[in-house]
Design a protein that fits this description.
Elements (H helix, E strand, L loop, with lengths): L10 H11 L5 E5 L6 H12 L9 E5 L5 H10 L5 E5 L24 E6 L2 H6 L4 H13 L3 E6 L3 H5 L3 H12 L12 E4 L13 H19 L7 E4 L5 H8 L6 E4 L6 H10 L2
Parallel strand pairs: 1-2, 1-8, 2-3, 3-4, 4-5, 5-6, 6-7
Helix pairs in contact: 2-3, 5-7, 7-8, 9-10
Bound molecules: 1,3-dihydroxyacetonephosphate.
Length: 275
Amino acid sequence: MMPTLKKKFNGKQLKRYKNVQDFIKPLLAGNWKMNGNVGFWRQLTREIAQSTLDFDTVDMMVAPPFVGVSTVSEEISKAMGTGLALGVQNIHHEESGAYTGETSPSLLKDFKVSYAIVGHSERREMNGESSVDVSTKACASLAFGVTPIVCVGEPLDVQEAGDTESFILRELAESLRGVFIRRADQLVIAYEPVWAIGSGKAATPHDIAPVLLSIRHYLISKYGDIGSGVRILYGGSVKPENTEELMKVPHLNGFLVGGAALKAESFLGIADKMR
Ligand code: 13P
């Protein structure tokens, strides 16, 4: 069991921070990964944006592939007054220049992008992104008013060795190096155990709870009171059927969803259970 950091807070402080949790509006973020086409993105955005769900109780965001950003942005504008926000799955840290194949937060200005997922395990693994790269991307997003969703997650061998919390804290500290915020809503953390992604087997509340507590302690130790309000998401095989159980985990403030975000019914089904 972890938390060396826990010792930094007395019971009264912890209780105060726990109360803050009741006021955090949860975020449901859909990562569409490399799926769909123009017709699909248009239709899915329409169905989510026009749903009768109360966006006042749950924030919702969808992150299409870059080529879908324009389409989704257009659909969101058409659904006037919808609370649905737009995100991207990656970002480049420079503003512009000779970076073939890359997209900067500055290029996204016209599309009203609110969130950028950075450091997803699939990019860390397949594109060789290091935590240093992730922190640079998070800084660039912030500089352009785009909220970074910084992803961390341990691979199966780390989990089996019982080293999850120290792995996550190290990855988090490195990914947030130089990342400074003035408000809690400028940053989101997503905890996605690599072994739970796309496996159909979500981590259990028992697996998740100590990790989220460690993340919360780390955020408070780095950002002070602001850190108690930074949203921490869980990701990995989330679906409507396991949402309620997962929502009970302390310090969990929403989800980053892959497969179940590709159908309006399941995505909205999750949102419904989060209220
Ligand atoms: P699944 O919900 O398909 O497991 O994917 C999770 C994920 O990687 C979201 O970023």
